[in-house]
Amino acid sequence: MTDQPVLLALTELKPHPNNPRVVKRDDVIDAIAKQLQAGGFDTRHAITVRPVNGHYQIVSGHNRTEAAGLAGFQSIPAWVRDMDDEAAFMELILSNAQGELSPLERGIHALGATEKGKHNGRSISAYAEQVGRPEKSVNNEVLAARVASSPLMAKLAELTDKCTHLSTIHAAPETCWPPLVKRMIGESWTVAQTSEAVAAVRSLKAPRGYEKLFPLATLQTMLAEGENIDEITTKLIRTIERCRADLRDGFAGKDYLAQFESWLAEHGPWDSVAVYAHREELLSAQTKAQQEAEHKASKLKRAVTLAEWNSLSKSEQKLLLNTRNDKAKLNKQDGTSIEWARWSWNPITGCLHNCPYCYARDIAERFYTQKFEPSIVPTALSAPLNGVPPKEAAIDLGWKNIFTCSMADLFGNWVPSEWIETVFSIMRETPEWNFLLLTKFPQRLKEFTFPENAWPGTSIDLQARVPAAEKAMREADATVKWVSIEPFIEPITLDFSIFQWVVIGGASSSSQTPEWKPPRKWVLDMTSQAMTAGCAVYHKDNLNLARLRDYPGFAESEPAVAPSPFHYLKARVVEVASTQP
Known about the structure:
It is a single chain. About 40% of the residues lie in helices and about 10% in strands. The protein is an alpha/beta fold. The protein has three domains: about 5-150, Conserved hypothetical protein from pyrococcus furiosus pfu- 392566-001, ParB domain (Alpha-Beta Complex), CATH 3.90.1530; about 230-295; about 305-540, TIM Barrel. An eight-stranded mixed beta sheet has the order 7-8-11-12-13-14-15-16, with helices on one face. Helix 1 (about 25-40) packs across helix 2 (about 60-70). It is rod-shaped and about 150 Å long. The relative contact order is 0.04. Pfam families: DUF5131, ParB_N. One of its GO terms (biological process) is chromosome segregation. This is ParB/RepB/Spo0J family partition protein. It comes from Tunturiibacter gelidiferens.
């Protein structure tokens, strides 16, 4: 440190690297140079320096030093002071307090002084107090400097008089600073216009439901660049939804739609041409896959075993379930074994219960290619669609009833739910028919919502089946619920209040069991219990008694009152009474 200024060669002097001046003031330097040429360099105007690594770093007097060089001076007077980096940095602003630093230049210095890790990172409040300026003003200048100093920013020289604009832009997301500054300069925005642009960016929201495809940060940057976000996103969303609809409605729509969504997530929705091109690729693949599946399905439509079904893709399975055959017909029942339903329909065949008296197994083993293995018959699915109940149904409900899956247990725990729901869908399309269903596994009935014209029933042959059957049938939600006591192997006690209809029968002979007709007393007792509970009762023709053949809500036609000639006693009493005095 010197007590008096000393002459230092200009070659020994170097500017401070953190000089806050952004722009070289040529007019100021020229004026100082002329003064120096006219009157010399008075020691009163000596610059301030500090020794650093063999040279002198200018702390105050950068313009005077440049002017001296311009005026032809080789050396100038300087105060030499020992300062640490912190003191030298603060002197840059303190010595320039009257030196016409712009607000942005002051902000650049304040930013450097208050950043963590630099110059002790003091608070803005402490800095403002040290330099003797209002904290609010210093804070706004720091915000402006932070925007001006960000990467990809315009040249600082263009921003020296835009401190208020820049501090306003600071409120926008940082990625939006460069495009906002560029437009602010290029379009000569006022502070009010700048504030409006920032408010628009901050209030922007991604289209509802499309937030992942249109990241908000990307949209904000686009808006900051001047793009019309509503117009752009509306067009892109229209493109996306068209593509989604095309793929969703096609073969294996869910799978191909998932591929489309994956591509969108990876590549984004911004290039409509690319989006449409990828849709075309997927549609082409979709068409090819459908053709291959149809070829494969054409070989399976007669009967598809459960094992074959499980080997198919979901799309191939769906294709089979949608099979429609206008030649499919219901099976007319000419015999009396199931005359309570004059028609049978077997879109599903096969059973795994292995009951010894099963007549269906004997038939299947003899006539079906798939034997009694659980199978779906796609070509039979549309049979109820191809006919209507005959006129006889008006007086005999049996002609309206279809025994559904007489060669299977539709609710066996091995039956895929897709098979069951497909059968139900056909029922819903044909409300003119009643569909009678019978299962030995009623526990599964509660899994489904039955069509109004479906009558679910359960088979009970032994008392051991009763508890599970009662519980399951109580839980089943159907308009008509029924029970088939067949074959009636032992006396059975049952809560008939659960049911609307009871069918009672013996057993025809099968390959494993003889013919069986239950004792009359069993049948009469069972019939009495059922009728007392309000059930309609139907006796099959393999019983040892005169038959009842009632249906729920459709009893056999019999008079409730005897014809009038039989009421002779009442008529005679009236006649006698009239002759008495």
